[in-house]
Amino acid sequence: MNKKVALKDIAIMQSGIYMKTDSQGEVRYLQVKDVNSENKLDYTQIAMVINTGINDKHWLKNGDLLFAAKGGSNYCIQYEGTERSTIASSSFIIIRPVISNILPEFLCCFLNTSSILGMLKNAAVGTGIQVIPQSVMGEIQLDIPSIEVQKLVVEMDRLRKEGECIRSEIDILKQSLQDQLLMDSLK
């Protein structure tokens, strides 16, 4: 049996940074609106900011996790991009694993489970916009299974999401066929 560890003991956690966007900027600035319905980063409309001496700790690194901690929709995504080209807005908590025996993809899957998201939502503070405190996230306890088990969990999650996409496409095709049959019957 694995020993439970706190997230704060296996990862560096920090808030993203608030910056004013500027179309003349040279730095990509990830915001919650840049995440599509499939929890993937959509780089097509990312805002830019001017590098006014951005602190090294704010530059995203490949494998960093971005947890949307503000607002009604909370989720975790993994950044898979170029280093020193992108920063995250203050709507995100950046989670950077610092131990070698945990896959960022596995940690992302873990943080996206309904039980963890539900627990975090219950701990949110604020009257207008709900915010999940970084301190609460840091106390999340988890077991770290073997790398092989982590890879299996990640692959199962990928297949589950792929299945959901296929089911959605089938539903759209069924609706289209039903609409076409209905229109044909009215002719």
* Tally of separate helices: 5
Order of helices and strands: EHEEEEEEEHHHEH
Low-confidence stretches: none
Report how far the terminal alpha carbons are from each other.
67 Å
Shape: globular
Q: Strand order within the widest sheet?
A: 2-8-5-6
Count the beta strands.
9
* Biggest beta sheet summary: 4 strands, antiparallel
Helix/sheet category: alpha+beta
Helical fraction: 25-40%
The Rg value, from CA coordinates, equals 20 Å
Structural write-up:
This protein is α+β, with helices and mostly antiparallel strands and 187 residues long. The chain contains five helices and nine strands, in the order βαβββββββαααβα. A four-stranded antiparallel beta sheet has the order 2-8-5-6. A hairpin with a 7-residue loop joins β5 and β6. The protein is globular. 22% of the residues are buried.
